[in-house]
Each structure stands twice: as structure tokens, then as C-alpha cells.
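Hi L.,

You mentioned the student needs an example of a multi-chain input paired with its predicted structure. This one should do, with 936 residues in total across all chains.
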Amino acid sequence: MIRRALPLVALIAVAPLLLGAAGDTVRVTPLARDGQVYVSFSLDGGLTPDMRETIRSGLQTTYAYDIELRRGVTIWFDRTIAATAVTATVQFDNLTRRHQLSRAIDGRVDAAQVTESEEEAARWMTSFDRLPLFSTSDLEPNAEYYVRVRARTRPRSTWSLWPWGGGQWGHATFTFIP
Amino acid sequence: MATPMRAASSIRPAPPAPRPARPPRRPIRDNPRLLLVGILVLVAAFVGLLALASRTTSFSPDFLTEVVLYALSVADLTMLVGLVFVLARNIIKLVVERRRALPFARFRAKLVAVLLGLTLIPSILVLLVGSELIRNSADRWFNAPMDEILSSANRIAADYYAERQRFVLAQATRIAKSLGEVDLQSIDVPGLQDRLGPEVAEDRLKLVEVFRVTPDAGPSRVAPILDVASPSLPPGALRASAERLASHVATGAGETWALEPMAIGGELLRGAAAVRAPDGRITGVIVASDYLTGDLAARSRRMTAAYEDYRQLRVLKAPLFGVYVSFFLMVTLMILVGATWMGLYLAKRITRPVQLLAVAAREIGAGHLDHRVERETADEFGALVEAFNSMAGELATSRQDLERSAIDLERKHLEGEGRRRYIETILERIATGVISIDERGAISTVNDAAGRLLGVGSEAVGHQATEVFAREDLAPMATLLRSAGAAEESPPQEIALTRDGRDVHLAAVATALTGEGGHLEGSVLVFDDVTPLIRSQKVAAWREVARRLAHEIKNPLTPIQLSAERLQRHFGTAPPPTRALVDECTMTIVNEVESLKGLVDEFSQFARMPSPKTAPTVLQALLDETLALYDGLFSELRFERRFAADLPIVRVDPEQIRRVIINLVDNAVEAMERRGVISVETHHDPGNHVARIVVADDGPGITAGDREKLFMPYFSTKRRGSGLGLAIVRRIIAEHGGSIDVTENTPRGTRFTIELPC
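Structure written out for the whole complex:
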């Protein structure tokens, strides 16, 4: 029974990797400096029309980014060194035509802003520059690491019988040189 | 005794008591309590789903798309997997059962297929149609007029707000410019209040607040100087919000505005503009506010909310459709799972008792009469099971009775068989001949004695008795058989047969066997060989004759002899012719008297034969000694001795046996006229425990008629002789418990065979 279930388990385990490898749509740029790993990332194409429509509907819309600092392991699953969650939230007021923007890292509000510009709101949601997300204290010098970013939106504006998966992926490798 | 013991040992052990009923196996499907719990859970799930479905509109979009949708998907997939598992498992089971040709497998397969078909097809159709209906309904939520109305309403409200915002900003900017040349650090507050008073007096603005920019104000960098409010402004305006706005403008961010909800309703629309000195430096901030009444704000908010709800509904159309379809799918799957389970349950419920009965019937057929079927229900199937168990019980009882009867029969059969063998053994061992004849006249049994006496073997069994007794020498038996048919039991008869030239006397009786109804079932011929008895009777008679003859003749012989001798002496002095005559006559009388005396002596000896004085004797030595008496007596006569090497020591009277041998040899010598070969042989017959002595000659032989009379007293083939020699020989041999027989020798001559027990 276990032997029969193994291939299925393995398939389920590697499914996210396979899906992620289908094509990166998140541009990631890691930078290790001053004891921190700064991560810049942005969504290719910015906000999609569906997301723009969602924002315009007045729904509080969130882009949730799951960011992992990982190290590749031969013949086994890669090791996650650290992980963090960055969320960018926008709520558009159709009466005042202003966007209320906020960013949070691991649930802690990092910044907030109000703007009437949709483009600015789009940039706020999809583009992040040099976020000091990880410490380099756990990194091994001259070793190769990669940062993987998965972006998901809430709420969903689509539906499928298999709700898992989806989202946008991106990753970038770097060599830690102290 | 052996027969009953054997019968007893063959009694089978008593059949074991019926196997104790196994503890009832109660699977989940057969447990009413669990079934009830399952149904309640299903109903609760239905109710929960209905409640959830009715509240979907109140859920937040995040909860709807991130929780409800996932939960429904998980539930749907779980139920789908469960349904597939149940279906696959049962289909495989049914296929296996059909391949194994298990009873009712085909029926179960058909029943399950029909139930599944009846459930699956409508369910899938309802799912498809329902999904399409939901989709169409969702599409109908959104139409162009509604979109236009809501968009327009929202635009009106938003435009009004924008116009008021621009107005407030313009007023703030205008006031700020007017105060550009005023030193706000040292301004006369009452004067400034008088200057700003007209701004609110005409209700163009409801509130004007003036802030000065000063480093001493802390992080906010601004400090309030004064505020001028219109009397129509409701109380509750918070300075903090104005200060935040002023602080923001003080940083050089340019004009800005904010909307502040009032506690009593309505909103305060604030616009802030920087007061710049002639050198461009920001010295203060003017926050001008206009009050949007509660009704206006509420209506605007409602219009916007309606518009946003509409837009959000459109955005969330797909997830909502997914939720509804998932609900629908879940209900369908629940129906399918329930129907599938119920179909399988019903199929099993229907076929299980029949299967159990079929299995039980096979067990009963295989002889396991203690097999029982557990009664699981109280319906007609239960009654059928009860009837089956009752039948099995009766069968078991009947079989026990049958087994007991069979054991009794077997015991009786063994007893009968024992008795039959016992009687058969007796019949085989007794000297009495027994022949049984069945109702068709065929011979059923012939015992050894009968075969020996009549010269018929076991091959006669099965042949008609009349055919067997048609032989010339067995003609008296045919007569006896006929007499058996005439009467139930004929009187004993003495019949004489001639077998191999010998007369055989039989005392025979024929008995008809009649059945219970009186009909003839056959007959039995019983006969005894009485030849030796008759011979003995004859010998006894002759001995009596001899004794009387000896007594009656011997007594007058002596006076006769004495008288003759007296006459001879008296006439001794008579003239020669007379004396010669007297001498001749007296001599004749004396000689004949002597002869008569010899004859009488032999008669006496025959009559008073002494009992043999037996002693262990080596027959070869005895025969050698006896034959040695003839050595050199006859030149043309030769003796051949052929003695068996294994002849045991025989207990005989040597003198009497020697006399027997001498008698036989003398007779042979005389018959052969002292020429030829006399053979003396011995044989050992261990089977019959006899030692056999054969004296054979190659003389002229004896006719068949004389051979039978040869051992009778006073029968002689010689011119001279008393005829008692062979009678004495037979008597001696008879006294030793043996027998003597005479047959024709091959190629010629006579052959005497003596059999002595050893």
C-alpha cells in the first residue's frame, strides 16, 4: 500500500516546483550587504486587468508575497533557510477616488500611503525595492543561495475545481560573499 | 463372540454437537444505531450547507474565496475520492464475485448497476442543468442599464465630492495667499479672527483653522493659532485631524485634503494650503473645512456602496459561481454517495440472506448438518432462514436416526455374517454332506463332505440339481430330491451309490424350505456316509456267526475224533480188509475233524480279535523286518521297497501290522503264482495326518465286483481258505483307527492302500 502511494506522494510534493518552474513572472533581485539580504522584486506586467477591476470595485485587495531564502540540496528537497511574508494592501474609495495603501512584513505594518493615482497604487502593490528581509548571519560564505518569491492575490477573482496552486513565481540565485 | 465385538468397535462416535453460533458479526452497515448516527450526520451536513449557502453574501470576500471555497473544494474532492473508492471497491468485488461464479453475484451486479444508473444519471443531469442555471442566473445579475445607473450614481456622488474638495482647497489656498504677508509668529489673533470671520459668516466655509509652523511644536511642526467656525457647524470637529493635515502640508507636500466623519453624522471635508512668506518659506497652514450634511454624505455613501457592491459582485462572480457550484456538487456527491451506499447496502441486504442460505445449502449438502444460518432480520428473509435452520435440524435428527439404524444394521449384518461363517465352517468341517437348493431348483451350496461323497465340486453351484443328479451313480439323489418336493420333510432314507466301483451307503434326508407364506423357498439335502457303520454291523454279525459256529461245531469235534480213534483201536485186530477200511474211514474222520478244528480256531480268532497294543513304531523298519521273511523263498519274485524319507514314527501294534502285511503279501504271492514284482511303498500325508502303506502287485488283479466283497468274512477267491484273512486285516486296521482300500493297480494287478493316523 505504502509502495503504491509513494509515487502519488512524490508527485504532490514536487507539484509546486513543477508549477513554479513553468515560468517565472516575478522578477527577483537579491542583494547581500551589511549583514542583511535585501530583496527587490516586482511583478512582470504590474497589475493585471482583473486586479485593476478588483481594486476599482472597492474591495480591499491584497498581494501576498511569500519569500523564501533557500539553498539547493542535491537529490533532495532544497532547504529553506528563512521565510517571510510581505503583503501589500490597497482599498479604493470610489467616492473620494483615493487609494489607501499599506504594506506589512510578517504582519507588521511597514508603510502606509494614500494616493489618487492608480499607477502609483499599482507600483505600490507590485514593486518592492531592497526590502531587508533576511539576516546573513545564518548564511555560509561563498555558498549559493536563491530567493524564491510566490505572489498571490486576495480575494480571488477566478475559480477552478482545483483551487490549489496558482499564483505567480519567481526566483533568483546569489552567492553570499561576506 | 468376535462378531459382536467387531460390531461394537465399528460403531461410529456420536456426531458432535452443533457448532456454537459464532459471535454475530455486525458491520457498520448492519448496525441500526450507527446507521441512524450516519443519517443524522448527513442531515446535519445538509442543514449546515443550507445555512452556509444562505449566508454567503455576508461573508467577506477573503473568507469566501480563501476559506469557504477551499473548504468546499476539499469536501468535494474528499467525497469524490470516497465515491470513487466505494464504487471501485464494489465494482472490483462484483467483478471478482462474478468471475468466481459466486451465488447471486450476477444478480447483485445487476441490482447495483441499476441502482447506480438510476442515481448517477439523474444526479449528473441535475448537476449539469443546475450549474448552467446558476451560470445564467449569475450572468443575469449584471446588465447594462443597471451598470449605467450605478455608475452614474457613483459618478454624481464622486463628482460632487470632488467639486466640494476643489472648492475647499481653493478657499484654503485663497486664504493662505491672503495671509502671505502676515507674520503668523506674532499675529494679532483677534484681528485675524475678524479678518477670517466673513469666510464663515457667509457659509462658504464652515470652519477655518490657522496653524503656524514652528520648530517648537514637536514632530507635528505646526501649532494652532485660531479657528473660526460657522454657527451652523455641528460640534465635534476634531482638531487632531486638522493638525495632521496641516503637519503634512507643512512638510511641503503641497495642497491636500481629507474627509473626516463627524460623530453626529455627516462629514467634514477639509482642505489644507500652506501660507508662504514673500521669500517662499512656509510660515503657516490654513485648513478650510466644509460640512457635508449627514443625509448628503449617507446618500452619497449608499450610492457608492451600491456601485461598489455591484462591481464587487461582478469581480467575485467567478468565485461565487464556484461556491454555488461547489455547494451543488457537494449536495450531488452526497446524494451519490448516499445512493451508492444505499444501493450497495440494499443489494447486500437482499442477497446476503439468500447467499447465506446458498452457502448453508452447500454445507448441508456436503454433510455438515450442524451448519446454521444466523437470523439477521425479522422479516420474510428471517422467516426463511428460520425455516431453513429448522429443516437442517430435522435433517440432522433424521441422519442421526439413520446412522443409528445403519449401525444396528451393520451390527446385525456382522452378527449374521458371523453366524453364516460359523455355520459355513461347521458345514465344511462336518462329515455330513449338505446340499442346499434354491426355489428355482439350482444348487446354492455344496459343502466339502457332500462334494467328497457325491463326487461333485463347487462348480455344481448354480447348476440345476436335476442336471447334476442326472449322473447314473447319483440317480438315488435325484429320487431323494423329488421326495423333498413332495413332502415338507421326507423320512430319513438309506440310499446306496456306487462311487468308483465302491458301494457307498448314505443315510439321507431331504427337507423342503418353506417361507413365511408357506411357499417353497428351496430344499436341503443332508446325508451321512454310513458305509463304515454298515460294514461294522456286517462284521459284528459275522463275528457272532463265527462265535456260534465255533461254539456249535467245536464241541462235537472232540467226541467225533475220539470216537474215530476208538473205532480204529477197536478194529486194530480185525481182518486186514476191515482194518484197512476202518483205518481209512477213521483217518478221514480224524483229518476232517482236524480240518474243522483249524477252521473253528480261525473263526474263534476272528471272533475274539484282541485289542491292539500300540507302541511308537518305525514303519520302514517294521516293513523291512516283515519282508525279510520272504528273502530267498521265491526265485521269480521280486520285492521293491519305496519308503518315504519323511515318514514319522507311528503308534501301532507291530505284531498285528506285521500280520496284516504278511496276509497281504501272501495273498499277492499266491495270486501272482510266485512270479512278478511286489511293491511296498510308504507315503506321508501331513495334510490329513496319515501314514500310507501301499502293497501292490502285478498279478491278474481282482474284478471290480469282487473288490467290494473282498474284506467280507468268508469271501475268498482262492480254492482253499476260510475267507477271513482280509476280514481280519480290515478289522486290525479299523482297530488302529485307519482304513484299507483296494484298487486296481496300474498297469495291472491289485493295489492295497492302508492309511494309519500319525
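You could point out the following to them. Residues 1-22 of chain A have pLDDT under 50 and may be disordered. Chain A touches chain B through 24 residues (CB under 8 Å).

Best wishes,
N.
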